[in-house]
Each structure stands twice: as C-alpha cells, then as structure tokens.
C-alpha cells in the first residue's frame, strides 16, 4: 500500500497521535504525516504511506488554506483559546467592516512573524514549547511568510460588543502561524486578540472533500476498499514543475544520474519532478550548485 491518504484530523490529537493510530488500523509501519497541526486544530492532514513518505516534505512545503475565527478583546499565552488570558481590553467602540477589511488587506502579501512560544520551532536545540512549559521566554527568530489572500467570512457592517468575533479564510505559505496572524489582526485594530477556532481546509492539492475520518478509514479497511481512497504520490507533486523523459533517460534517472537542464527549466528554482510519458514520477531533481547547467537528483522515487 502506497500513496497519500488525506485524513480529517479531529480536535484533541497531535499529528503524531494520528500516525500512531493509523499504523494500528492499516497494520503498516511506513507511515508519516506532512507537517504538524496543533491538537486543537482540525482539518486536512495528508498522510504518506509506503514509498510516498519520501515526498512528505514537498506536501509540507506547499501552500495551505485555513478557515478560522479571531476573538478581539483579550489575548492568551498560547495565542489560541486553550491558553491563559494575559491581556484584556474591552471593545468600547464598534468596529466597522471597512476597518477590518483594511487590516486584512494590509496583512496580505509578505509579512514578518515571530513564532509563538507555544510552537514546535527549535531554538538552541530545544522546541519553543519546551521553554514555555518551564516558564522560560527566549528570543525567537522572526521569519517572512506570504499571505496570498484573506477573506472576511462575515457579512456584518458593524461589529460591536465587549469582545468581537469574526471568521476568515486565509491562503498562505508554509511556516505561517494563523494564531499569530489572529494576534496581528487584533494589534492592527488596537486590541489584544487570539485565534478562537481553526480548521485547515487545504494542504497542497488535498482539500476537505478528499479527507476521510478515522471511522471511515476503519470501515473501508475492514471492507477491503481503503486502497480506492489512497491518492497516488503524483497528486502530491502536482504543484511542482514537470520534465517528461523518454525510456533511455529514465534508466539513467533511476540510477541517480546528473543531467543537463532543458532550456525551459533553466530559470526554475527549487524541485523538479522527472516523469514518464504516462505521468509516473521517477525522481525529484534540483539545479546542481557546483555545476552550472546541470541538475542532480535529491530523491529517486522509483528504481524498479
């Protein structure tokens, strides 16, 4: 069994918990997830099976989309609803739709984020949440991420109340913290804020419509039909540039040969999928750093 099984991750489980449970259901060891989702976050978690574990990083590196809810009026230690309240400011003046839309527009594009203390980012060999649990605050690296779009999912013209909540949909690059984005929205509006709900609705090519729950996976495994729900690894690579090669070149690729870069890929930066005429992915190549005009394999996916 190999390919991608898009799981609908339930609330309360870590990504590692999900892999552990699937190993028991599917009775196989070679399973990996494609990027950590916080326990309280639900939604799309593509699971790699068998040979597809080789390409997990390319799903992780692809764009993501989420639907979330931000609460304006108080912030928490974890930047989501599970943390302790650390700052509070009553919303005394109604906030107009235009003002919220202006803030969302301002936060679209490339922005700088500082990862929350309760996150898996490593500093000096330890994950930030390990420091946070010990009550230690450390300097965190600021990173640039890209917000491709933010859409307000609320049709109100005026937002009023001691606290204000509204939902939004965001498409973003890898490494984006939506919790931190919610805090930034609040800061731009002049209030402490946190993310009160979040669901991932897309990861790379996989959407909510592709996902199965644990119960559905158990049922289909028992019925012997689970293979029908497993997507080929090529689906997970659909966002990458392709180079279709002939059988002669395919033999060299399977043996990890260094190749000349075709003209149409000269300006491409990052991974390139080498595939057969029938669309079967054989390897992932990248430009050779020491040998201009050549490319080398970083992952050979099929050598049989």
From TrEMBL:
EC number: 5.4.99.25
Domain Pseudouridine synthase II N-terminal residues, every copy: 23-178
Catalytic activity, as annotated: uridine(55) in tRNA = pseudouridine(55) in tRNA
Active site (UniProt): 38 (nucleophile)
GO MF, any single term: tRNA pseudouridine(55) synthase activity
Enzyme class: isomerase
InterPro entries: PsdUridine_synth_cat_dom_sf, PsdUridine_synth_N, tRNA_psdUridine_synth_TruB, TruB_C
GO biological process entries: mRNA pseudouridine synthesis; tRNA pseudouridine synthesis
UniProt KW keywords: Isomerase, tRNA processing
Protein family (similarity comment): Belongs to the pseudouridine synthase TruB family. Type 1 subfamily.
PANTHER family: PSEUDOURIDYLATE SYNTHASE TRUB1 (PTHR13767:SF2), TRNA-PSEUDOURIDINE SYNTHASE (PTHR13767)
Task performed by this protein: Responsible for synthesis of pseudouridine from uracil-55 in the psi GC loop of transfer RNAs.
HAMAP family: TruB_bact
Protein name according to UniProt: tRNA pseudouridine synthase B
Taxonomic source organism: Cytobacillus dafuensis (Bacillus dafuensis)
Taxon lineage: Bacteria, Bacillati, Bacillota, Bacilli, Bacillales
Gene symbol of the encoding locus: truB
């Amino acid at each position: 069994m190999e390919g991608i099984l898009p799981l609908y991750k339930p609330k309360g489980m870590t990504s590692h918990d999900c892999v552990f449970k699937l190993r028991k259901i599917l009775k196989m060891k070679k399973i990996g997830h494609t990027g950590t989702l916080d326990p309280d976050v639900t939604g799309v978690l593509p699971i790699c099976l068998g040979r597809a574990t080789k390409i997990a990083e390319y799903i992780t590196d692809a764009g993501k989309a989420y639907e979330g809810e931000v609460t304006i009026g108080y912030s928490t230690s974890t930047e989501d609803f599970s943390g302790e309240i650390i700052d509070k400011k009553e919303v005394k003046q109604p906030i107009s739709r235009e003002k919220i839309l202006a803030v969302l527009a301002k936060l679209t594009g490339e922005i700088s984020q500082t990862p929350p203390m309760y996150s898996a980012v490593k500093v000096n060999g330890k994950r930030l949440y390990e420091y946070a649990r010990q009550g230690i605050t450390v300097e965190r690296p600021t990173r640039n991420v890209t917000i491709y779009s933010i859409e307000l999912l609320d049709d109100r013209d005026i937002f009023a109340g001691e606290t204000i909540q509204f939902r939004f949909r965001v498409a973003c690059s890898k490494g984006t913290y939506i919790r931190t984005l919610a805090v930034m929205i609040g800061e731009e509006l002049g209030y402490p804020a946190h993310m009160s709900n979040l669901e991932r609705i897309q990861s790379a090519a996989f959407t909510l419509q592709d996902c199965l729950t644990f119960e559905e996976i158990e049922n289909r495994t028992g019925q012997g039909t689970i293979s029908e729900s497993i997507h080929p690894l090529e689906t997970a690579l659909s966002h990458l540039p392709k180079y279709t090669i002939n059988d002669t070149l395919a033999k060299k690729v399977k043996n990890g040969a260094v190749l000349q870069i075709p003209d149409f890929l000269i300006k491409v930066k990052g991974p390139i999928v080498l595939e057969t005429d029938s669309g079967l992915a054989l390897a992932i190549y990248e430009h050779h750093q020491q040998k201009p005009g050549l490319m080398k394999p970083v992952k050979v996916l099929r050598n049989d």
